[in-house]
Specification:
Distance between the termini: 46 Å
Number of domains: 2
Number of helices: 11
Radius of gyration: 19 Å
Oligomer: single chain
Shape: globular
Largest sheet: none
């Protein structure tokens, strides 16, 4: 079959669809929690469009609700999103011949789920004339689903009485994200150390316990991974 921009774009959309079944509920939960944290609907939606990173958005909502200083929020977001630097380094060889406008668009769409689908396509088929359209289709499908699910969550959140209290959904969401990813000893050790450090440092001002626990967990994870490979 002849390759074309359209066929590659829709191929990326099609391969991203199964992942969206798991993404949409989280987008809705984010929208609900954003309103419960006191964010206006427009700002909550704008965060999904500008930040476009689920884990960071959930954490930002919690920090905003706690009245955390801006510099701590920015630093926390930076630490959480460090993984995108690794994604970028992985896909850079495949995109190096593209114009700057394409690189910018794909960098914006480079999230966990889009990366997983896009890089597998590159590894399977190599760099072809329209491979970047596949990546674009996968990323745009994810972006669209995230915006729509956020809007749905904001709408639902506006209908839910404040007295219901939805704070419990945030830790449950993170548990649902983290637990399936714990597939080896290094991961389990990192999660355990992060939990213990967060509990031990919870009394630090400005929510610095969260930053400290994150950095401790990153160091512990690197050490555990190094020992596992030696």
């Amino acid at each position: 079959m002849n390759e074309s921009a359209g066929s590659q774009f829709w191929g990326g959309v099609r391969d991203e669809l199964p992942i969206l079944l798991g993404v949409i509920p989280f987008g809705m939960i984010y929208g609900i929690l954003a309103l419960s944290a006191g964010l206006p609907a427009l700002e909550a939606q704008a965060m999904s469009a500008i930040v476009f990173a689920g884990a960071s958005q959930f954490m930002l909502v919690e920090l905003v609700k706690a009245g955390t200083p801006v510099f701590v929020i920015v630093l926390t977001t930076f630490v959480i999103n460090l993984r995108h630097a690794l994604y970028s380094a992985t896909v850079a060889p495949y995109l190096q011949t593209l114009p700057l406008c394409w690189k910018g668009a794909l960098a914006y769409l480079l999230t966990d789920e889009a990366f997983a689908v896009g890089v597998l396509n590159y590894q399977r088929r190599g760099v072809t004339a329209y491979a970047h359209w596949y990546f674009f289709g996968a990323g745009l499908a994810l972006w669209s689903a995230w915006q729509i699910s956020t809007a749905a969550g904001i709408f639902l959140g506006a209908q839910i009485p404040a007295v219901w209290g939805l704070d419990f959904t945030l830790p449950l969401t993170f548990l649902a994200l983290v637990v399936p990813a714990l597939k080896d000893r290094a991961g389990v050790a990192t999660a355990l150390i992060a939990s213990l450090a967060a509990l031990a440092l919870i009394g630090l001002p400005f929510k610095l316990g969260l930053i400290s626990a994150t950095l401790i967990a990153i160091g512990a994870g690197l050490l555990a991974e190094k020992k596992a490979t030696t």
